[in-house]
Amino acid sequence: NDLAVMMEVSVNQVISTCLSLGMFVSINQRLDAEAITVIADEFGYSTEFISSDDEEIITEAEDHPEDMIERAPIVTIMGHVDHGKTSLLDYIRKTKVVQGEAGGITQHIGAYNVTTDSGKKITFLDTPGHEAFTAMRARGAKITDIVIIVVAADDSVMPQTKEAINHAMVAGVPIVIAINKVDKPTANPDKIKEELAKENILVEDWGGKYQCELISAKSGQGISELLDKVLLEAEILDLKANPNRNASGTIVEASLDKGRGYLATVLVQSGSLSVGDVVVAGAHYGKVKAMTDHRGVKVKKAGPSTPVQLLGLNGAPQAGDKFHVMGSEREAREIATKREQLLREQSIRTRKHITLDEIGRRLAIGNFKELNIIVKGDVDGSVEALSDSLLKLSTPEIQVRIIHKAVGAISESDVLLASASDAIIVGFQVRPTTTSRKLADQEEIEIRLYSIIYDAINEVKDAMEGMLEPKL
Ligand code: GDP
């Protein structure tokens, strides 16, 4: 399918060419470099492999099942502002982090690791909120295994609660609900459960599948139980990694420290990272000079699901960049240089996110199946009406999906979600904020603004029929 898109031919032509060459392939099958070269040649194209994709540049050996051992789940806490995300993270850090050596100062490095009462480990990403989560996902990083959604029991399911639920669901990450502030006299957990049910989150004691715990980030009530529920969820996911290989993982944070140089917090996802290893991350590389954990304790080695801050890179990679340990400094430098070139080229070339105009072209080459839309509007009634009408435009060929709908201006978080999910944003009687407009330009996300519902529906319909007149 990807190859067909690149060559602007129908996917059927590619498949039949493969068949005539003796290759039985399906539409989503990955082809090796040799096959791609042969097929492209049949269509009169020559090939050059320049992808910045880690899989393409860095070939990783497959793990044997017997080398895989259990790893700690990686958790992100999300929810509405003031519902207690930071308090929960702080409470867990204070009570569950095993004390460091004397002199170790607990510091914020973007992630930390706790040992629960049952002796099991959980890794928390220390940047609460879905912006960071979705920004990482937009960069292709999948690090969160489980999301805790915090809802204050003395408040309601709020817009950002819904947004967080949405973001976790779109990412396919399991959710555990924490109803917080139950120490407050005005707390009403049942009301929250009812509101969650309206968002299709039916909690367990109401017969649903979502685990839920009543907690207080102030008194600590229910927090051990909450962590047990996270572990239960992790057990179902059967999270495993091989600690005995060259490390790879994701950058969580990076900064420049005037005295020490570039500091990067990395989350090891596979293998073990050791001092002295040569690392490449994004367009930067370097030899690991020193590593510390979140307690400020020096460590020599870090295994799967462990966050560490490392010193030694020659620049600051972006959060969400992958890192890999390489065999030699020369190899790492070559890859970093190549990526830098690619980044430069890529920023010149356009990234092809979906636009209404683009639909016609993709339809013509037969590879368009799903249209993801984010709907924002000024009042609930129009958001609902517009979303329903757009959904009804679905045809057997193209499924329309409303991945998020809400009242309010088009926010940066909407743009990030659109970027992560290849969606267009439809605004009805609302505008993007200046910063989200800028971000949309940068990410090349199409925002369509309407003041008449009928116009919005007609334009999307025309686009889906390949009939939209391109805007000049
Ligand atoms: P965030 O914006 O989601 O990170 O929320 P914070 O953690 O900053 O909490 C917002 C406010 O609620 C702060 O004043 C906290 O002290 C308070 N708070 C958080 N959790 C609880 C709780 O369990 N009980 C009570 N009574 N207050 C809480």
From TrEMBL:
Binding site for GTP: 79-86, 126-130, 180-183
Compartment list: Cytoplasm
Swiss-Prot/TrEMBL keywords: Cytoplasm, GTP-binding, Initiation factor, Nucleotide-binding, Protein biosynthesis
Domain spans labelled Tr-type G: 70-238
GO molecular function, one term: GTP binding
Function comment: One of the essential components for the initiation of protein synthesis. Protects formylmethionyl-tRNA from spontaneous hydrolysis and promotes its binding to the 30S ribosomal subunits. Also involved in the hydrolysis of GTP during the formation of the 70S ribosomal complex.
Stated family: Belongs to the TRAFAC class translation factor GTPase superfamily. Classic translation factor GTPase family. IF-2 subfamily.
Protein name per UniProt: Translation initiation factor IF-2
Source organism of this protein record: Sporocytophaga myxococcoides
